[in-house]
């Protein structure tokens, strides 16, 4: 049951990745169909993270009242409708609207799915389980790149976008038959149902042990006191969590990852790769490295811990970006292999660290009663800076060139390494209830 639920919730990550990555190959074809300006390209590409800001807010509003499961059900339907609308768009405006809709579903599911996974998983497996969501994001990105490479010679950008409806419908079917998070059930007073779900997820536990797990959840909930208001986020125990999770996502975005994901073929062109086929092939290589190193992250995150991986990731991406910046010099096509190698290294360091860890931290650190709202604040920061970076990237690239643009990303990664060294906590092997006892607003009094 745990494996099935992890696979299902993580499939929302695939939808996330597919709808983010597919625009890379579709955009050059779309601009020929609708004659879109450079600013229009930036806004169309950035429509997904812009919609995701609203999606994260809506998920925070309803994840506690409706439950994680129902929010994910609605997300899957919006995913399907948005994909079909994007593939059948007859104007630039309709296409932007469809991508805003997809962003809405991505923002909501990116909050609800990691929360759902973290609340389902036993402590010793939680890092790998939540990282499965990030893994499937990378699988979705790779799948979108492969779809782009197959359909690009036929100019079939509509099919590129519309195919996202298929996994969305699979998600909807699967989530209907899935149980709710035992921690949400406990929060709502459904104790017996929560014990039943814990027994399903961890069949090696006896009924008495499953009851003890739920009792710990109830104890942690009681320790948090009455339903806390927004002022609880200003308490001495919770405020550092808010600052850290928001900063982790901001630094993740200003590392430049989504500029690379969205504009990979354009970057390959600037690096000296001629022809759309070779650019897309190199882009697929980026997707493969992304997937493989995220698999590595799943195996090491619960062994080596969150903190050392985060520090290593920022150092590795910073060094890779220095090399990329040097190799992207204009009129030096002989440096193209070096640029591609450094880009692969950048993706590898990101995938094993900066990619999954902010999502994992976000789902672990906040107390249960504050979790949906705390995750929403972090998600809004994530998607807001995602929008800013993706929208600004083509403008900065056009005005300052690739050398300066990637150097800026490298500076931000250096700042991230310093920040992680001083502030990144370690949550490896600690139960959510133990973390909550340390950081609940009541514990500060």
Automatic annotation (TrEMBL):
Segments crossing the lipid bilayer: 43-64, 71-90, 96-117, 129-147, 159-178, 241-268, 280-301, 308-328, 340-362, 374-397, 403-424
Name listed for the protein in its UniProt record: Sugar porter family MFS transporter
Family designation: Belongs to the major facilitator superfamily. Sugar transporter (TC 2.A.1.1) family.
Record keyword Hydrolase present: no
Membrane topology summary: Multi-pass membrane protein
Keywords: Membrane, Transmembrane, Transmembrane helix, Transport
Principal location listed in the UniProt entry: membrane
Organism name: Roseibium sediminicola
Domain Major facilitator superfamily (MFS) profile: 5-428
Domain of life: Bacteria
Subcellular location: Membrane
